[in-house]
Structure formats: structure tokens, C-alpha cells
């Protein structure tokens, strides 16, 4: 069986020249760039622009990574455009572009920024237990090819946010919240992500991960902890790249909930033995004792218990979002972002979570710009976590 190439190189800062050189070397390991990027084609560059965070917060793809790809695409005589659909745009999409450094970089490189909400959407059919059709941005249809630039982070709902998860940003605006409600469990959401990936797989030229500085712990936003992974990694197979990174971060790749539907649908290589690694010594990257999200233990429940047992023990095994009133400023972004409408406004104009309605999708936790939402777990979850650390 032909092995899939994963290329990874050491990088410990975001200086412009260093980033370009490392990115260029990593991509050359995949083959001849002129064979990958065709002249006169329109290339959609998809970074992770979760919300209005600065590059230094390590939540969004660093603008120097995007700049390097823009330069490489232009050098190949193709036409780059940059697009995403951030989750929190209370102050407008331009505010997100400014804070993330994308606006300044785009001006300097004379490249177009696309708001996925403004270009319209197309309805497509998918194969999913609870969802028949979804809307995706027309930017996917209008482009000739896609380059995926995710950030390396942990994720409270899915455990891990990287290549496959980054494509959820191809769903415009508030529809992301709607689909979270229709696919509330990690398994349901993983199958949704697999369907998004399936429909665009043939257009993806490669995925390149910004792992110079990422997040560990309860990511993918402010509750995560910055971590210097010191890695820029790439592959033409996004599934393979995610599998590679998952295994080195301490997740069991064969058991991982994100990879399960991708493996079932044969959408990419999830076998570590079928990876051809090219690049710097693996031991040079910092993957030692990565802090995984507190919710990781819940991902085992659907596979270890029947549906009946899961319902029976569900009241004993839970992790839920928790609002810290002393940090909450009452912006009510959590209310707007809750798919289950489980968050209401109290008499003192502060949000309150109804845990009976909460589906633990952690959208509020992910999109809170003030770090006012933490996680709270049941006694049994706390017990297992404490014993796991011993």
C-alpha cells in the first residue's frame, strides 16, 4: 500500500522570513509545487478565524502562516482569496479581521478577504442520522481548489481541533449553531464534520497546520492554555495529518471519536503504519504531557455502554458549562450562541444556564470573549479524572 506523506518541521517563532522558509520546505516535501497549485486557478485559503482574538492569544491561525501561503500561491501564478465564518461577530467581521491580523496582512499582500455570510450559501444533501441537508458557503463552489490552514488546539466538545474541524467554518453564520443542536453529541457532530469533509475532499490541495503556538487543556478559545508545540506540519490528506497529530498529542487515534466516521467512510488514511514521515526529528517538537480537555472521558461512554446504559448513567456522567458571575459582563453572547436555548437572562440581566436543557455542546464556552464560562463536572467524572492522574 502506498504510504501517505506527512511533513513536519521545527519552528519556534513567527518571524516572517522563518515562517516562509519552514512552510516552503514543508510543502516541497509533498512534491513539486507547480504540480499541486495550478496557474490561473482560484484558491480559497481557509484559516481558523474563530473570533476577534489577537495572534498572540494562539486561538486563530497566525497571519504570517497565511502570508506565506499567499506568497507561495501567487508564485505559482494562481489567485489566492482568504475566507472564513467566525463564530462571534458582535462587532462585525472587519473587527475580527483587524484583531486576528488578517486585515493588515491582506492589505500588504493585496489579497481579497471573503466573508462567507456575504457570498451566499448552497444547500447540499448529506448522509447523517439527524440532518438531511446543510448550507455551505458558495465560496467552496466558486473556487477551483482549497488550502486548509487550521490551528493546533484541544477542543472541549471534540477533544481536538485541527484539520477536519476547521472546515466547520465553511457553514455560514448562525447555521453553525442550528447544526450543533441537530448534532449535539460528539459522535453526531463527528459524523457531520465527516460529511462536510466528504463533499469538499477532492478540492483540497493540502492542509498545513499552525502548531508553532497552540492550545492545550479546555480549548479551543480563552479557556485553553497556550502551548509551544513548535511544529508546522502538512499533508495532502487531512485525515492522515489529524491522525498523526492526535497520536503525538496523547489521544488514542484508533479510539478517537473524530476519526471514527472518517475511517468508516474511507475518507483518508487513519493507520499510523501507512504514514511516510518527512521532516525534523519528532522528539524536537513539544508533545510531552499535553493537557487534554476535561471532557475527554465522556467520549468513551457511547462505545462502552449500550444506548440504554448511556441513558441510565447519563445523569452521573456529565460535564457542563458553568458561568462565573464575577467575570461575566452581561454581553449575552452566550445566550445568542446557545443552540438549545438553555441560557436565559436573569432579573439582574446576567445569563443563567438551565442544565436540564443544556446539551453540553460548549458553544457558549467556546465563544465567550471574557473567559467567564468554565466547565463543571459530576462527582463521578471528578473521581475518574483524579484517579487517572495518579
Summarize the structure.
The protein has 390 residues and is α/β, with parallel strands linked by helices.
**Rg calc:** 20 Å
Amount of beta strand: 15-25%
Q: What is the share of helical residues?
A: 25-40%
Number of domains: 2
What is the helix tally? 16
For the record, the CATH architecture of the largest domain stands as 3-Layer(aba) Sandwich
Main β-sheet description: 11 strands, mixed
The total count of strands amounts to 17
Distance between the termini: 41 Å
CATH topology of the largest domain: Rossmann fold
CATH class of the largest domain: Alpha Beta
Low-confidence stretches: 302-310
- Name of the CATH superfamily of the largest domain: LarA, N-terminal domain
Shape: globular
| Mean pLDDT level | 91
List keywords for this structure.
single chain, 390 residues, alpha/beta, Alpha-Beta Plaits, 2 domains, eleven-stranded mixed beta sheet, two-stranded antiparallel sheet, 33% helix, globular
Amino acid at each position: 500500500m502506498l504510504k501517505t506523506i506527512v511533513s513536519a518541521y521545527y519552528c519556534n517563532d513567527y518571524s516572517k522570513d522563518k515562517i516562509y522558509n519552514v512552510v516552503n520546505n514543508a510543502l516541497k516535501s509533498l512534491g513539486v509545487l507547480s504540480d499541486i497549485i495550478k496557474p490561473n486557478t482560484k484558491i480559497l485559503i481557509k484559516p481558523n478565524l474563530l473570533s476577534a482574538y489577537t495572534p498572540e492569544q494562539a486561538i486563530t491561525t497566525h497571519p504570517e502562516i497565511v502570508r506565506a501561503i499567499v506568497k507561495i500561491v501567487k508564485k505559482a501564478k494562481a489567485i489566492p482569496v482568504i475566507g472564513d465564518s467566525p463564530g462571534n461577530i458582535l462587532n462585525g467581521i472587519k473587527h475580527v479581521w483587524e484583531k486576528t491580523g488578517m486585515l493588515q496582512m491582506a492589505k500588504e499582500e493585496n489579497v481579497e478577504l471573503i466573508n462567507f455570510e456575504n457570498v451566499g450559501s448552497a444547500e447540499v444533501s448529506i448522509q447523517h442520522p439527524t440532518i438531511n441537508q446543510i448550507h455551505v458557503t458558495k465560496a467552496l463552489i466558486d473556487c477551483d481548489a482549497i488550502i486548509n490552514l487550521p490551528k493546533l488546539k484541544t477542543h472541549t466538545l471534540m477533544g481536538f481541533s485541527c484539520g477536519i474541524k476547521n472546515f466547520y467554518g465553511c457553514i455560514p453564520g448562525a447555521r453553525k449553531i442550528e447544526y450543533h443542536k441537530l448534532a449535539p453529541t460528539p459522535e453526531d457532530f463527528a459524523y457531520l464534520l465527516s460529511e462536510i469533509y466528504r463533499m469538499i475532499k477532492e478540492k483540497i490541495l493540502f492542509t498545513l497546520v499552525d502548531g508553532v503556538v497552540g492550545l492545550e487543556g479546555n480549548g479551543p478559545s480563552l479557556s485553553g492554555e497556550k502551548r509551544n508545540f513548535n511544529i508546522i506540519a502538512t499533508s495532502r490528506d487531512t485525515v492522515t495529518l489529524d491522525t498523526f497529530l492526535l497520536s503525538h498529542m496523547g489521544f488514542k487515534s484508533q479510539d478517537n471519536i473524530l476519526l471514527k466516521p472518517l475511517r468508516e467512510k474511507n475518507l483518508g488514511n487513519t493507520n499510523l503504519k501507512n504514514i511516510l514521515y518527512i521532516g525534523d526529528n519528532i522528539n524536537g517538537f513539544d508533545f510531552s504531557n499535553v493537557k487534554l480537555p476535561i471532557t475527554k472521558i465522556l467520549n468513551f461512554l457511547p462505545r462502552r455502554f449500550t444506548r440504554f446504559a448511556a441513558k441510565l448513567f447519563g445523569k452521573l456522567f456529565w460535564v457542563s458549562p458553568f458561568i462565573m458571575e464575577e467575570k461575566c459582563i452581561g454581553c449575552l453572547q452566550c445566550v445568542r450562541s446557545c443552540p438549545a436555548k438553555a441560557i436565559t437572562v436573569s432579573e439582574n440581566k446576567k445569563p443563567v444556564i438551565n442544565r436540564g436543557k443544556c446539551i453540553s455542546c460548549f458553544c457558549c464556552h467556546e465563544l465567550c470573549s471574557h473567559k467567564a464560562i468554565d466547565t463543571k463536572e459530576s462527582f463521578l467524572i471528578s473521581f475518574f479524572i483524579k484517579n487517572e492522574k495518579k
